[in-house]
UniProtKB/TrEMBL annotation:
<dbReference type="InterPro" id="IPR010730">
    <property type="entry name" value="HET"/>
</dbReference>
<protein>
    <submittedName>
        <fullName>HET-domain-containing protein</fullName>
    </submittedName>
</protein>
<dbReference type="InterPro" id="IPR052895">
    <property type="entry name" value="HetReg/Transcr_Mod"/>
</dbReference>
<feature type="domain" description="Heterokaryon incompatibility">
    <location>
        <begin position="45"/>
        <end position="124"/>
    </location>
</feature>
<dbReference type="Pfam" id="PF06985">
    <property type="entry name" value="HET"/>
</dbReference>
Length: 124
């Protein structure tokens, strides 16, 4: 599944992915898409820092038009943080980093200080 959702990031650059969380009402399906962001990390984005929760308790969202499982805690956060009238641009480690790619994980974890330092707002 992850191979279809994640485009390759170039490790020699400070590239990240941003998640575009579609607007919706609390009871609506969560729909989001991932987009590559160059080194300058535009447009402005918000970074979410949260407790991942039990990895065995998951909920479905739609990511890049495909079903994608996230932890129950993350699903609850996305439901509460989603705007009802506009897209919200976010960086969330569990979604924006390909968790099936150890090389990418290592590189992206090395960028987290810059990611949290460069975001428009950090949500905790």
């Amino acid at each position: 599944m992850a191979e279809n959702i994640y485009s390759e990031l170039r490790p020699e650059r400070q590239e990240i992915r941003l998640m575009f969380l579609e607007s919706g009402q609390p009871e609506d399906e969560i729909i989001a898409s991932l987009r590559w962001a160059p080194e300058c990390w535009t447009p402005e984005f918000e970074a979410l820092s949260y407790v991942w929760g039990d990895p065995l308790i998951t909920r479905p969202i739609k990511l890049n038009d495909q079903p994608y499982q996230v932890t129950e805690n993350l699903e609850a956060a996305l439901r509460r943080l989603r705007h009802d009238d506009r897209v919200r641009i976010m960086w969330i480690d569990a979604i924006c980093i390909n968790q099936q790619n150890p090389r990418e994980q290592e590189h992206q974890i090395g960028l987290m200080r810059d990611i949290f330092g460069g975001c428009a707002q950090c949500i905790v």
